[in-house]
Amino acid sequence: MTTPLRIIFAGTPDFAASSLAALINSEHDVIGVYTQPDRPAGRGRKLKASPVKSLALEHDIPVYQPQRLKGEIEQAELASLNADLMVVVAYGLLLPLAVLEAPKHGCINVHASLLPRWRGAAPIHRSLLAGDTETGITIMQMDEGLDTGDMLFKNTCPILADDTSGSLHDRLATFGANALIETLQLIQANQLKPLKQDDADACYAHKLTKEEGLIDWSNSAKVIDKQVRGLSPWPIAYTSLGDGNLRILSATPQPEIENVSAQPGTIIETHKDRIIIACGNATALGITRLQLPGGKPLATRDVLNSRKELFSIGAQLGI
Known about the structure:
Distance between the termini: 68 Å
Radius of gyration: 23 Å
């Protein structure tokens, strides 16, 4: 019979909470949780606990929320927990060498890509924006680099044609939790086979900016489709409409419409459930869900029922 591991967990968002839940439901002992300090949220800007903190408190696990881990006091407090392992999932703080070396088995990270592809902050979004057909989870032994440590476990996940960053996020959260538990079993059995990353194959998933959501209609419908899906549910693809911005929440290429001659950004057709826009390379894109300036997200059919005059044939978006 194997001995349960004493684990410190470090993470902040929903993606990390899935792995924490798996640990809580496992044989292992989560002896402490590190998460980002509470942040103002909502219209009232009241302090809100992270999903990881909320879950930890539900299970009476001690929570630590240091602003940083570079100080001797914070490092000594962490070391005093006498952990076998620290599991890090989208924590948001850099771990100095003293922290990486404090647990018996060091620190491992659940990363949402097949490393060394998409090291960095936004691997899920970048995989969609790049048109990748697969991604996955890598469990990595952490070192002082940015997602450069030895790979301990990989699990591949296909990217579906209609995936958004939101749907892929949710699927990978489950993949990550399962991969973590399998990795812990290998640690207990002393069967890990670390594999070094090939830096020549590395690419970086830089943080997203709102500006990346601006649609260039001279791109093909396939490229814009990847942009819409890759930036959903945040920061959302958008185009100008009059004096405001029209947010494109869902769209799909229209391959049956061939040899489009209209200027990119022109509305060429409207149907009961979509607005067809001319794109580059003589292609067309159908908008199926959108958000008008100052409005709420709606299906295109509802918008056309109430504001069809905004989307007359020949009108131009993105001017």
